[in-house]
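Before a computer can learn anything about folding, someone has to put a protein's shape into writing. The three-dimensional part falls to structure tokens, numbers that each stand for a local backbone shape. The protein below has been through that process, and both of its lines are reproduced in full.
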Amino acid sequence: ADWLPELWVSIGLYFLPVIVACLLLLSGQSGLGVLLFTSSSLLVAIGVKIVCHPRCFLVSAIACGLGIASSAGIYLMRTYSGDALFYFGAYATALPFFHVSEYVTTALWNPHRLSLDSFILNHSREYHIAAIASWTEYGLESWLFPQMKLFSIFSRVGLALVVCGQLLRQVAMFTARSNFSHLISYEKEEEHELVTWGVYALSRHPSYVGWFYWSIGTQLLLCNPLCTLAYAAILWPFFREWIEDEEMTLLERRFFGKSYEEYKRHVGTGLPFIYGYQISLISF
């Protein structure tokens, strides 16, 4: 299959710097040594360009860059155990892993939709602004009010939300398989079926639930009070509107119609105070 080289390149070049960093840290190497050795793995990405087509090179470069970022996070966790930087390291490890896992999961279960966009690094301008805002808040508060970053109870709760949110999203994508897409499908394809088992028996939109709590968790992990509130205030209406738009399509006859209406009646969205598209507005 055409997508297999990209899958193995993305997996290999993400984990290569991560594994190298772990081995170097276990052997007692300095931070500079870890940085030099993990960064050198980019040479592998250049080698891939020689033997593969251009898009595969871009996949390799992105995956390797994400792997190096996770490696830096692992270094911080290893070096500053018990310190506020430990939790920043956890964040720096989790964020790149989230993006590479989106690509790998799409490649495994939905390869005909696979593209560079599957990393969702270019999700939206608002996504980039939110990320920059969180880094800015963390940097300024660490400089001006370093004691704010020492509330480990919030960081631990955030770490738990990040891990559980990531796991739930991946399980949801695995369960839905070819039915999952990063974009709303407005035309029913032959392989589309209504998934109501597994985590979908507990929530109609478990991947959104996972992403919602993962996002909030990243800010608790960083002890970012402003961004924690801002993320919650922005993500809640975003997912409410997204779910309503998606369910408006799913409730149409050409998709699942009455079957989805029955499913909707018995299973909630999984997100607080979000109920989905109002069936009473639909005329069958």
Remarks:
- The chain has a mean pLDDT of 86.
- The radius of gyration is 21 Å.
